[in-house]
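ingest -> fold -> write
write: protein_1
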Amino acid sequence: MSKILAFTRFSVRDLLVTAGPTVFLIAAVCLVAYWLVDPAPPHHVSLATGQENSAYEEFGKKYATLLAQHDIKVALKPSLGSQENLQRLNQGTVDIAFVQSGSTEQAEAERRGLISLGSLFTEPVWLFLREDKNITQLTQLKGKKINLGPPGTGVPRLFKQVLAVNNVEENELSIGALENTPATVALLDGSIDGLVFSSAPEAPLIQMLLQTPGIKLFDFAQAEAYTRRLPFLTHVTLPRGIVDLGRDLPAQDYQLIAPTATLVARADLHPALIDLFVQAAGQIHGGTGWFQQQGQFPSARYTEIPVAREAAKFYKDGAPMLQRYMSFWLANFFDRMWVLVVALGALILPLSKVVPPLYVWRIRSRVYRWYGQLRTVEQALEEAPEGRRAEIYAAQLLRLNEIEEMVNQISIPLSFADGLYGLRSHINFVRQRVLSLTQAMAPTGEPA
């Protein structure tokens, strides 16, 4: 019964042996494609932010919170500000950073391998002065103690450009390099006459100084002219009462000049992380604000650094379709595995036409190889010398019996049974020939 079952069942073993190399090849191609496409982004990324109590620090925390929902840990790296962040990107010590517009040029950014994920918000130039200093023009800052912050903030470079278009030399005023918090303390105690920030209004120090008695904000009445002379600046208005409507703070509209904050990354940042950061930027910066309308930011505009392809696609079409219906990791896997799908299709289609003939050949070869043995027997019969024919014929009969015994042990699927029965009939045909030759050699009786 076991032999019958073995004879009738499908030959899984032969199929595995035949398809094995093909399966191995496909698996190897899948592994290579998986490695080349790199579908899984890293779980850790470093983000250079800014000083303590700065808008960069506050926004950095929001990015870390949103990306943590997708199991991405964002390591926040405090810094002095935009210029230091740019240096860290160039050195490769951080993956992504907040950088102020005007901090570099397009050719330099391309040479350094930097990409923009879009502009995020405006960073007005806030010049806070002691109220007892009656200053309405920047030319009146000559001889005054003005803190611009450390060089790494980017503010000294920016404000010196602003002074230059007013024909004010930096050596005509006393420039301080204190960080934001100690500079604020110095302004409040009268140690300095003024300080300059360039930050989003969400920064705690900005909020405090706008409501501090004895401190006033400088009004850039010529803001529109500044944007013509310095193209990376935009003209924004701080509306009356925006700080506190009940107390009417501020008591007038203030004209301000503002660069924009940009999210900048190294060109080798994983594309999936770019998608994730840009989507997070939409949630964090997409609403209304003191200086922006709904949906104005984030944007591919207002940046001199080339915008990443993934970011530009997001600003044009929105989030990737799969991420609208799947988790980030699953959507990213399918979205980035199209190369693997193409490779599989290129292999499976032709190989699917090769494997079946190989399987048929392997099964039939179990039968066909015995025809070589039959041919050997026939050659022995044809070449037998006359004096040894009886001996050779007897030996070949034994050999045919052995062949038949081994053929009877062959197990093949029923669909190939015709070949097996054909072989057995051919064995019997050769046996009959040997018997005929043997009988022909037998001596005949003498006539009576």
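write: protein_2
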Amino acid sequence: MPLRLYDTYSRAVRNFTPRRGRDVSIYICGPTVVAPPHVGQLRCQVSFDVLARWLKYRGCTVTLCRNVTDMEDMILRRALMENVPWWLIAETNYRSFFAAYELLGCLPPTVEPRATGHITEMIELIEELLRRRHAYVVDGDVYFSVDSFPEYGRLSRRRAEHMRASAEPGRGKRHPSDFALWKRAKPGEPYWRTPWGDGRPGWHVQCSVMARKYLGREFDIHAGGAPLIFPHHENEIAQSKAAGDGFARYWLHGGTVTRGGEKIHKSVDSPFSLSRILTEVRPIELRYYLAMSHYRSDLEFSWTALRDAAAAFRRIEGFVLRASRRLPHAAPATVVPEPFAAAMNNDLNVPRALTVVWAAVNEGNRALAEGDEAVLADACSRLRAMLGVLGLDPLGEPWAARRARDSRLEQTALALADLVVNLAESARARGDDALADRLLTQVREAMDGVRPVRAEAERPVSLLAG
């Protein structure tokens, strides 16, 4: 069965055929490291992590390049506002993103290049565009001429008046939609020397250069969030194809995470940051929430929906853990059920695939209640194969290692809580009710959330079957 993916460029669901056999090359627009990661940015990465996992399940070798934009106007503005070096902003937030991807169980990319490590190649590409007369210099700035590229606007299907309305400002531009390849140096900003003067690269040229260097002049899939379609991806296509590259053969875009109908934006103190959300749910539960809707659909974030998704995943997890105790040597199946595969091959239709997941959970819970180990083993092995594709198998990595670590920490916390409770009882026996109450309040606050999560996973199968 072929894998079919929605290609933004052609506005059609197309059969996916790699350029070279089973070798698949993917470029994902990574973060601009100006602020800590928020749920919108992470959803996109989880969605395309599922894509990479499904391709690997299908027997493909995946080369995945996910860039880091560590040189951009927003980074420089924040550094100026906080009176700190620009590289400190970039490095601090890069580490936050790296930790976030790891926490959510995303497979590491094959390569994760930083923009500032490829300035020489950016200068070379700009020189190439100047020679081909697709670019021009204005007082140290270099602009791409959209009039020189007749296909400009095909990806976004934008009309000329819409392009003009969203055009970036610039001195001496020949056309309102011309975009900066290079920006001349400003006082206090980092700069590099070039034949047309000191300065720094624009945003769009960075991805064209890194994609070419690590994936070649033509590669299979370019992925990113839907807000990047214009101008970023439109401009990438223009400058890369104008330089003679075939560039991406398929364009995949993930939907936006919204709140009150508005896109969640980058912010240093975002209420939708990963650190804030993980006070409510565990990383594996957040991954389930981010993966459960179709990757191309927008997701209206709500705390209630997040908690409901977490509770639903704990039902799946609880069954897997109970089944593994009954059958400790059972392993995931090597093949997922055909209906699950059909859903995944249909443009990564995870919502439909999850109906097959839940059917296996319900079947397995009935088998547990009835003591039918043969049916239980079959249901659990099928389920774990499907969860593995989604990066959600609680007995797979990285979740199994974390579970073992968390179990040790939980046992330690419970032992310390019992010790504090004993101290409180001793204080009350001595007549020191104030100390006893204070100790009990502190231990309740410290242990909040430890027992409920554990208890959910341990609920009797009779309450979950059906």
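write: annotation protein_2
The two ends are 32 Å apart (CA to CA).
Residues 4-263 form a domain with the Rossmann fold fold (CATH 3.40.50.620).
pipeline exit 0
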